[in-house]
Amino acid sequence: MLTLCGRSEILVAALATLLIAGCSREPQVYPVSGSVSLDGQPVADGDIMFVSLDGVRGPDPGKIKDGNYALKTTEGKKRVEISASKIRPGGARGGGGEPVPEEYIPTRYNMESKLSADVQPSNKNRFDFSLEGK
User: Fold this and answer.
1) What CATH superfamily is the domain 28-131?
2) Pairing with 84, which of 27, 43, 60, 115 sits 20 to 30 Å away (CA)?
3) What is the per-residue DSSP string for the chain?
């Protein structure tokens, strides 16, 4: 025979199990692709991140190769950050004299980015970014 206390323990255990099961589901992700150019030229090699504005999920990164990228991210509005670096002749040197890659995408497209994308389940989710260096 279950007492009132025993029933409460069973109820709490059942609710906890449901909450844990509900929280462990992975969110639905959707393919996103597009192109990235700087001053009319494809970005040869770089990185792109789709950052959720809700703050619940971390950024979804992708690689830019020959001006194109593809990644998967969740639905909703995202802030987009784009970065790329290269070694410049006569550029910065590390402590051992080795050349150090320098970011050549302006900060207004990465750390201070105002670029955005709205990822939707029913869209093709293609976002092209034409950046200007100056």
Assistant:
1) Carboxypeptidase-like, regulatory domain (2.60.40.1120)
2) 27
3) ---HHHHHHHHHHHHHHHHHHHHTSPPPEEEEEEEEEETTEE-SEEEEEEEETTSSS--EEEEEETTEEEEEEESEEEEEEEE-EEPPTT--B-TTS-B--EE-S-GGGTTT---EEEE-TTS--B--EEE---
How many CB atoms lie under 10 A from the CB of residue 72? 15
Give the span between the Cα atoms of 112 and 81, in whole angstroms: 8
Q: How far apart are CA 10 and CA 2, in angstroms?
A: 10
Q: What is the mean pLDDT of the chain?
A: 86
Q: Where are the domains positioned within the chain?
A: 28-131
Per-residue model confidence as pLDDT tens digits over 97-115: 888 899 999 999 999 999 9
